Amino acid sequence: QVQLVESGGGLVQPGGSLRLSCAASGFTFSRAAMSWYRQAPGKERDFVASSFRAGAKTNYAASVKGRFTISRDNAKNEVYLQMNGLEPEDTAVYYCNAQTENDYDYWGQGTQVTVAS
Known about the structure:
Blueprint: E1 3-7, E2 10-12, E3 18-25, E4 33-39, E5 45-52, E6 57-60, E7 68-73, E8 78-83, E9 92-99, E10 105-107, E11 111-115
Parallel strand pairs: 2-11
Antiparallel strand pairs: 1-3, 3-8, 4-5, 4-9, 5-6, 7-8, 9-10, 9-11
């Protein structure tokens, strides 16, 4: 049974930082592409960042490049999103996504990030 459990969301002031975590189980984590997406109220779910398998290759949305960093610990089956320089526009529910080696897609339940003064 695949599980993705996000944590680390919360309320932060503009310019602040948060670190999201996603604990994964039920599949071969080291062979999966792990990503973060976000969905703001009334908007579609958008791609934020990806880490491919061993983590050597990463990819970012233009809106977060230089501010957010995705990383993973294959020994712990966890993926992280370090978010610096947060802006009100970053307010959204953040979702962890796993694309397994068999091309199955799985989602976590999401964690709320609110950037406000």
